[in-house]
UniProtKB/TrEMBL annotation:
Entry-linked PANTHER family: SEPTUM SITE-DETERMINING PROTEIN MINC
NCBIfam families: minC
Record-level GO BP terms: cell morphogenesis; division septum assembly; regulation of cell septum assembly
SUPFAM superfamilies for the chain: Cell-division inhibitor MinC, C-terminal domain
Family: Belongs to the MinC family.
Gene3D superfamilies: 2.160.20.70
Organism encoding this protein: Prochlorococcus marinus (strain NATL2A)
Subunit structure comment from the entry: Interacts with MinD and FtsZ.
Entry keyword set: Cell cycle, Cell division, Septation
Protein name: Probable septum site-determining protein MinC
Secreted as UniProt keyword: no
Location of the Septum formation inhibitor MinC C-terminal domain: 111-208
Length: 214
């Protein structure tokens, strides 16, 4: 774990790395400032793991002001818990390391900004959108679709038949959802405020539930 002024960089070597909590506590114990920015680099952190980081920081009277990461899951998870988040594109070195573990990352398409009515975005891998998808907009991906914003248009994940693909957003209120060959309308109920949502196939139909926290 490295640190800069008012910033902690958490290095977790895989999801089963056993000592990151101890390292975090040791670093917090030596900090003079109680305003922290957590840089999770390219590590996938769930809502549960981010909640654990927040709890540890609170034990040391430290306040987390922002989460930074090149992981879409970490960004969406932290945002869903109400924390300011910043997506950081991976360096060439980090990207190379990610590609060795996950070859589909190379095909991930990143879009910064709102997708407006009449616009169409497609990705040969996963699709990460940092902004809203407005009514009349259409986004599609062979893999997962992750929207750091509101999905109000049409989204099609797993467009080549991948039934394991998922669609995640801070708010799922789409005109239409498609995963592989399954089609669903958006939910009539308004989503719970501050809770990210996820659409996936279960028992041959698309269901919408809170973003997985494990």
């Amino acid at each position: 774990m490295n640190s800069k002024s008012q910033k902690i960089i958490i290095n977790i070597e895989g999801r089963n790395y056993p000592n990151w909590k101890i390292d975090l506590k040791n670093k917090l114990n030596t900090l003079k400032s109680n305003n922290l920015e957590i840089d999770a680099e390219n590590i996938d952190l769930s809502c549960k793991e981010i909640s654990e980081i927040i709890e540890i920081a609170n034990q040391y009277n430290c306040k987390i002001i922002c989460f930074c990461s090149s992981s879409p899951k970490t960004i969406v998870s932290s945002q869903s818990l109400g924390y300011k988040s910043q997506f950081i594109e991976s360096s060439s070195k980090n990207t190379s390391e990610i590609n060795k573990r996950n070859p589909t990352f190379l095909k991930t398409h990143f879009h910064q900004g709102t997708v407006r009515s009449g616009e169409y975005i497609e990705s040969p891998g996963d699709l990460l959108i940092l902004g809203d998808v407005n009514p009349g907009a259409n986004v599609s991906a062979e893999g997962n679709i992750i929207i750091w914003g509101r999905l109000l248009g049409i989204a099609h994940a797993g467009n080549k038949g991948n039934s394991k693909a998922k669609i995640s957003a801070l708010q799922l209120s789409p005109v239409q959802l498609r995963i592989a060959n399954k089609v669903a309308r958006g939910p009539k109920e308004k989503p719970q405020f501050g809770l990210a949502e996820q659409a996936r196939i279960d028992s041959e139909e698309i269901i919408i539930s809170p973003l997985e926290t494990t």
